[in-house]
Amino acid sequence: MNRPTLLACLTAFSLAASVAHAEKKLAVGDEPPDVLGTDVGGKRVKLSDYPGKILVVSFWASWCGPCKKELPILENLQRAASKYGVEVLAVNWKEDRQVIRTFKKMSPALQMHLVSDASGLVGKSYGVTAIPHMLLIGRDGRIQFVNIGYGDSVIDSIVTEVNKALAKGGTPPATPQSVEPIEPAAAPETSG
């Protein structure tokens, strides 16, 4: 096989493999990609920055009504369960990083971690096609729960799944009362 033909074959194979990977939806038991995006200051945020933690990762956008309802629940979860090794990472999807800067400025007491995925490439690697898109990642680094969309009925499922993850580590479980909604912080309006 001559060199140009070999290069063409390798390029075609590489493209096919990346498209197949991009279209794959992550499922329970999968190990998600490490990179989540950048924080308010522009520093890269990775799952490996949180070894041994239970991570709740939720992709959201400021224009998304259900996301605006979910974010206060996630903030309350962060406040109630961080002492047990639970960290919430709210990944703003396909919006300029200025959105999370403004959001943090409007709500300086936020404890959950705000992350930007302005290009949408991180979300694509996670199989995000609709938001909110939430994943619970256990201490072992594998996905334990996936939820797409939001409704009040999801709160009990989130609590149950967090409790299951905590039980694997021998930590006291969160109670449903500990993740009752707190006063919602207004999501910043964006132009565009």
Write a concise keyword list for the protein shown above.
192 residues; single chain; 35% helix; alpha/beta; Glutaredoxin; two-stranded antiparallel sheet; globular; disordered C terminus; disordered N terminus; 5 helices; five-stranded mixed sheet; 7 strands
Description of the molecule:
With 192 residues, the chain is of the alpha/beta class. It has one domain (26-179): Glutaredoxin (3-Layer(aba) Sandwich), CATH 3.40.30. It has 5 helices and 7 strands, in the order H-E-E-E-H-E-H-E-H-E-E-H. It has a 5-stranded mixed beta sheet with strand order 5-4-3-6-7. Mean pLDDT is 81; it is low at 3-22 and 175-192.
Would you spell out the secondary-structure blueprint of this structure?
Blueprint: H1 3-23, E1 35-38, E2 44-46, E3 54-60, H2 65-81, E4 86-93, H3 98-106, E5 113-117, H4 121-125, E6 133-137, E7 143-148, H5 154-168
Parallel strand pairs: 3-4, 4-5
Antiparallel strand pairs: 1-2, 3-6, 6-7
